[in-house]
Amino acid sequence: MRDFHDRRSIVPPPSAANAARAALSELRRTPLLVLILFVPAVILLEQVSPEAHTLLFFLSVAAIVPLAALLSRATEAVAAKLGDTLGALLNATLGNLTELVISLAALHAGQHLLVKASIAGAIVTNTLFMLGGAFLVGGLKHHLQEFNRVSARFQASLLFLATIAILVPSLISEVDRVPAGTFSQQLSLGLSLLLIAVYGLGMLFSLKTHRELFASGGHVDEDEKPWPLAVGIVVLVGVTLFVAMVSEIFVGSVQVAAQRLGMTPAFVGFIVVALVGGAAEMTTAFSAARANRLDLSVGIALGSAAQIALFVAPVLVLVSYFVGPEPMSLQFWPGAVAMMLIATMAATLLSNGGRAAWYAGVMALAVYAIFGLTLFLLPPSA
Amino acid sequence: MRDFHDRRSIVPPPSAANAARAALSELRRTPLLVLILFVPAVILLEQVSPEAHTLLFFLSVAAIVPLAALLSRATEAVAAKLGDTLGALLNATLGNLTELVISLAALHAGQHLLVKASIAGAIVTNTLFMLGGAFLVGGLKHHLQEFNRVSARFQASLLFLATIAILVPSLISEVDRVPAGTFSQQLSLGLSLLLIAVYGLGMLFSLKTHRELFASGGHVDEDEKPWPLAVGIVVLVGVTLFVAMVSEIFVGSVQVAAQRLGMTPAFVGFIVVALVGGAAEMTTAFSAARANRLDLSVGIALGSAAQIALFVAPVLVLVSYFVGPEPMSLQFWPGAVAMMLIATMAATLLSNGGRAAWYAGVMALAVYAIFGLTLFLLPPSA
Amino acid sequence: MRDFHDRRSIVPPPSAANAARAALSELRRTPLLVLILFVPAVILLEQVSPEAHTLLFFLSVAAIVPLAALLSRATEAVAAKLGDTLGALLNATLGNLTELVISLAALHAGQHLLVKASIAGAIVTNTLFMLGGAFLVGGLKHHLQEFNRVSARFQASLLFLATIAILVPSLISEVDRVPAGTFSQQLSLGLSLLLIAVYGLGMLFSLKTHRELFASGGHVDEDEKPWPLAVGIVVLVGVTLFVAMVSEIFVGSVQVAAQRLGMTPAFVGFIVVALVGGAAEMTTAFSAARANRLDLSVGIALGSAAQIALFVAPVLVLVSYFVGPEPMSLQFWPGAVAMMLIATMAATLLSNGGRAAWYAGVMALAVYAIFGLTLFLLPPSA
Lengths: 382, 382, 382
Hints:
Chain A is an all-alpha fold. The first copy, chain A, has one domain (about 30-375). Chain A has 14 helices and two strands; from the N terminus they run H-H-H-H-H-H-E-H-H-H-H-H-H-H-E-H. The first copy, chain A, has a two-stranded antiparallel ribbon with strand order 1-2. In chain A, helix 5 (about 95-110) runs antiparallel to helix 6. Chains A, B, C: Ca(+)/H(+) antiporter that extrudes calcium in exchange for external protons. Chains A, B, C: This is Ca(2+)/H(+) antiporter.
């Protein structure tokens, strides 16, 4: 959940002991948070019957959603106290923390295919489902919605170039049928360093030298009280630990559960993990669209997708040298490459005009449904 | 031939007996219609010497052109009498009736490759040949032509997303080398239902909720007299039957004729069938461009291509469960996928600026010529 | 170096004997020209020790750069004396003379792979490195730079369609796995004639019927004195001969040198040759960007790339029927196809908005670096 507005307030900072009370008031405002009860449930069940994979899968999915929401709320709270630039930096860096933690758990278990599917799936889900959903939800209430075309076009360009960057090694290897191996691994390492450098320069650009281009319109919910810094940090650290625990259970159960439920691993990684990890951001994007603040929706959807391509994916490659059985490459299976390219082109096209109506959302969601259907029906051997 | 303007007139409706006279006056206005004489000729010849495949091929091509022109004229006439919304709905649905009937004949003969080539060819021909031709013909008369950028961009987006939709199964299967079979057939069925639903929502959008975005500028030929409803219906049904008869002859002769003439089946399906089936629409698009009404030309070209991708292709898949030897999938050969993608991207690029000059037409036609040349030279085994 | 402005002056034309003096004054203005000393050095070394491939490689690279600069200066000088239309025609035709001469030397040596790599590399280098570098260099000095969006969009469309044209045979053969051979050769011949015709019509369009769309803003260096016609022609012919001699040495040494330096042939053709051949144009494009004349930079980068696709490549195919061991086709290796497509799409995207900032340059250069890294690491067997 990215939110670049200023939240410094004149309310005196409450003590750290108020964390529980803040969490409770948060719960009252966001009914979704009642799902938090699944967190102890899934941890308990994993101790009691670690073989109940299907149930563990559903419970961990249900538990991650409220944790992700708390996580972005806490990130925002800390960011708001850090001042504009540092806060925005933190917001941008931790914006996809849930996806990162889930992927780290999968990396730790050596499930590289699941990691890659969730990266590709997050890009596709953010550009098609989140953007399309925002257009549809907003368009059902407002006849025509305008958004800042210059900013959207810039973010789409960034996303496009980021996706290209992540795709080149896969494309080159695929079309030339180069066997994976040393080449692929060296290239992935070099690319990861390059991408993180480009991401860093992008932060410099959007937060420092040209920040006026990225100005957000204001608040979604003007009346919410900011958390104190200490509460924010405690929640941030604590919830991250819980996300890590639940993610480990999720990763451990997902394959068996998927098999039992008749879902292909590709479908689980692409669709289920991406929807679960991005649930909190989607809520924000959709309610912004209903409030006729499509600038914010488009910014969240495209910005988050770009961040995954430029930051999360290369960080995972670098981390894989220290975590898990063997280093991970940036090479994706060709179907994922095609889907990422198509999703990015669709997003570029949809955000190009600076105007949206409900049917634009339908089209984006239809492409997403086509991807989902294809992945669902894909024979598991592929 | 799509024409969204209001044709309700104050002229008293003539009796159905006037159909012949109306057809004759139509013939005088459109010299192309003299080709109608080939209709009895080809039907007669097929009875007399059913083995004269090359001659039957040429005669059936010559016979379909005037029938297509009459068909769109009759569709318009009926549409004009039905009132704005219902009329536009009919116009949009029957806009590619000729292509549909030819494809049904091919489907009935079990020639799935010909059906798919003609679908892909119609999309490519509409976007490159019809749009490029309109730009060239219009640009030779007018220095710079403007057209409604917002509407063109919307239609191009629609076409782009529609093409993507139709391409995904082919792309995924190709890049991952999944064997065709149950997967492909299930996916094609699901996608067809999805595409038809999206098409229906598109009608709702363009004819009901956001019709003001698609407003057409007016008439091409202001002085033509509308046909009475009965005449329109009689001509519509009668001509459709004739198109069906001639199409059956065409489909029966095309393969042998192509072989004898040294043309590859891919070339015939892609280029010949598409040009024949779209002849009537092209005439309208080109004369609209000369009359400096490029809005209409762009609308016909992109709209017709989108309709084939979103409506004709999925309908053919569904119908193939009842007609012909076995169900047809939505999987295209990879070369056709590449051409459709390129054509759609070219159309998006060309219609993006809202301005056209003759050289834009030359470029589009050059790409079309490149496709034609490639298909013409392609070894038949491919 | 393309420069469409009027240079007819009122200075009386000096005698041809002044050529040396003009060259000297040129040298003082452009310090790069001191590299001209490498020209005799490399020619001498080749006589003395023809086996010193690595040294010959470096010396010939260093010698081509100043020759290319002189060549474009001479082309401009002659063009300025020939009047607007004829001069622009000459400028446009000889704009990539260095690339053409290097490629001819490679063609003569039968090194088709090197020729194709340098064609593909020139397109990629012009669109990513030259355009990106101009955006970066200009953006470090100016906060936001505007350029003529209509003209840039037109040139990007031209480039896009040109690239498509050059790619179709490779795409079709690749995806359908048609064996290269007669088909490929016939198609390449037909396409080359078609592309040259399209290029000729493009000249007619941009220099005659719609020249007002391509109007350049003015001079880069207002105070330079034009060379007399005779000096221009003498330098043009003389320098071309020297480029040919040095190119032959370069082509003869490049393969062994690359092997010794641990560079893949793909990297040399794509990156090294393209950077060397385009050095002069890059200097112009970058200094124009610093002078806040991004129109000129974008025009040089995209125009040069389009010229290579539409004119240089097909001319080389035609010439290959008379020069070298066997005719060359237009079929590229799939990795090159992917890179050209991506580069063209990135250029379209970057030039679409009509505005640039430094980060746009960083992104384009990052994609270029990714390509370079991939090619550098690619196993030579591929």
